[in-house]
Amino acid sequence: MLSASEIRSRFLKFFLSQGHEIVRSSSLIPREDPSLLFTNAGMVQFKKVFLGQEKRTYNRATTSQKCLRVGGKHNDLENVGRTARHHTFFEMLGNFSFGNYFKEDAIKFAWRFLTEDLKLPKEKLYATVFQDDDEAEQLWLKHTEVPAERIFRMGEKDNFWSMGDTGPCGPCSEILIDQGEELTCGPNCGIGKCDCDRYLEIWNLVFMQYNQDETGKRTPLPNPSIDTGMGLERIAAVCQNKHSNFDSDLFQAIIQYACTLAPKANLKYSHSSPDTNDIDTALRVIADHSRSAAFMIADGIMPSNEGRGYVLRRLIRRAYRFGRLIGMPECFLYLMAAKVVEVMGADYTELTSSAEFMARVIKEEEERFSKTLDKGLALLEEEFSALKSQNKTCIDGLVAFKLYDTYGFPLDIVNDLASKRGFSVDEDGFKEQMNAQKQRAKAAWKGSGELDLGSRFQTLLEEGLRSEFSGYTQLNDESRII
Ligand code: ATP
Ligand code: MG
Ligand code: MG
Ligand code: MG
User: Distance (Å, rounded) from C-alpha 225 to C-alpha 210?
Assistant: First the structure.
């Protein structure tokens, strides 16, 4: 069985042999790019190269890039645990051409890697092309063994890729694999018709041709380029004959470890299909969010009430709540993070160098949240019964805000809990309260947003920097893996 780690290195080596420079993953925090909260794809660190604003010593590159999709144009938070293929944190394998090769070689390389190197069954592979991209379709027919009936034309939503609202973009061509009839979602199952996991999207080849500005206008890039992305967790599951990313080696080690943390609950992961088993869903969410939290902290993000730090806080608290639901002890996520370091530290040394600091930050956050969790849940229960007796189904914005402000419940937790019980949340009302609070805070402004970590975290951060933390010095976008 091919491990994820072997697949990652095979991918990089394959593209090295095709004249690509192996470039190290950049940080989850995009450098000098205020348009983006997190690195959400392999191309992010090359954005300026695509735009012709920066020159590198190479015009072909390959990476395994740390990505986060929580917020902005690409947000998979709600999908995690509910689909077999989405994570908040994942690794994207990619090959890039900066004005060097274009569609033809991108298609040839992808086909060769999948069918010759990984030996995937050719008859199960499908391709999609952008609606009017005759050229791409012809290239698939000419250079691969995908027949016309397994090539599908798709619209903007699926086959025009952009990093965010602005930046490099272009039509794309994707490769999907048929995971078997038994996964069908019914008579309407099919590429472009449903979103189930039978036809799993594994690799996206983007034909980078434009730069999109704030008004949505697209101007051609100086040179047509290539940007591709393949999720390591997805291709690992496929190579390991699993239908869920969570059954791949990357996740199983972490999930099995999670089960041991609640001995009284006698937890077992039962490999259920998405959304059918609450314990499995919770274990998937915990495993996913632990990976994200570990990688975020290793890249220098700290829990806070603003920006990136707030996303981290939400992930920790969400995982924590799911954990308590299935009988996890009062603090457990810091141990999960340590497991992530054990499983992935050899490939990402920044994890190892910040391991001790990371554990302390997460434990501190767990302790804080555990103090208010039960009180907040009780308040929510009261609200549910009050609403029921009034025959109402919508939670007041003020109540949601109180849960947020006093008990530390991010809105997505309230949403999760409410929808499970058939209630909705007045999100507009919540936002109004939030804005009103921001105005009040502005009037009394003393700190500086993201850096305003709160004194306990500040102390932790300083202690961490004094002792263990050396992550930053080792992280350098331009340093190579080999
Ligand atoms: P999907 O349609 O499944 O949500 P996508 O079209 O949003 O995927 P792309 O933006 O094309 O994904 O990203 C390139 C590749 O990265 C995908 O083909 C997939 O293999 C992988 N990928 C995308 N999102 C995720 C995620 N949330 N978790 C794991 N892998 C992902
Ligand atoms: Mg998506
Ligand atoms: Mg897609
Ligand atoms: Mg895609």
Answer: 10
- One digit per residue, the tens of pLDDT, for the chain of length 482 reads 899 999 999 999 999 999 999 999 999 999 988 889 999 999 999 999 999 999 999 999 999 999 999 987 889 998 897 789 999 999 999 999 999 999 999 999 999 999 999 999 999 999 999 999 999 999 999 999 999 999 999 999 999 998 888 889 999 999 999 999 999 999 999 999 998 889 999 999 999 999 999 999 999 998 999 999 999 999 999 999 999 999 999 999 999 999 999 999 999 999 998 888 999 999 999 999 999 999 999 999 999 998 999 999 999 999 999 999 999 999 999 999 999 999 999 999 999 999 999 999 999 999 999 999 989 999 999 999 999 999 999 999 999 999 998 888 889 889 988 998 999 999 999 999 999 988 887 776 554 444 444 555 556 555 544 443 333 333 333 332 32
**Closest C-alpha residue for ligand 1 atom 13:** 229
228 CB under 6 A from ligand 1? no
Nearest CA to ligand 1 atom 6: 158
Q: Is the beta carbon of 12 within 6 A of some atom in ligand 1? A: no
Ligand 3 centre distance from Cα of residue 215 (Å):
24
204 Cβ closer than 6 Å to some ligand 1 atom:
yes
Q: How far is the CA of 1 from the centre of ligand 2 (A)?
A: 28
Q: Among 36, 85, 120, 196, which is best to mutate for testing ligand 1, by the most ligand atoms less than 8 A from CB?
A: 85
Of the bound ligands, which one is closest to the alpha carbon of residue 162? 1
Amino acid identity, residue 340? V
DSSP secondary structure, 110-155, as one string: HHHIIIIIS---GGGEEEEEETT-HHHHHHHHHHSS--GGGEEEE-
List all residues 6 or more positions away from 438 whose beta carbon is below 8 Å from its beta carbon.
Answer: none
The residue contributing the CA closest to ligand 1 atom 30 is: 231
> Which residues have CB under 8 Å from 272's CB, separation 6+?
280
Compute φ and ψ for 391, nearest 5 degrees: 60, 35
Q: Whose CA is nearest to atom 27 of ligand 1?
A: 86
What fold does the segment set 4-239 form as a domain? BirA Bifunctional Protein; domain 2 (3.30.930)
Residue 69 CB–ligand 1 contact under 6 Å: yes
**140: CB partners within 8 A, 6+ apart:** 107, 127, 129, 146, 151, 173
Q: Taking the model in full, what pTM does it have?
A: 0.89
What phi and psi values does residue 351 have, to the nearest 5 degrees? -65, -50
Q: Where are the domains of the chain?
A: 4-239, 270-392+444-474
- Cβ–ligand 1 contact at 203 (below 6 Å): yes
ipTM comes to: 0.99
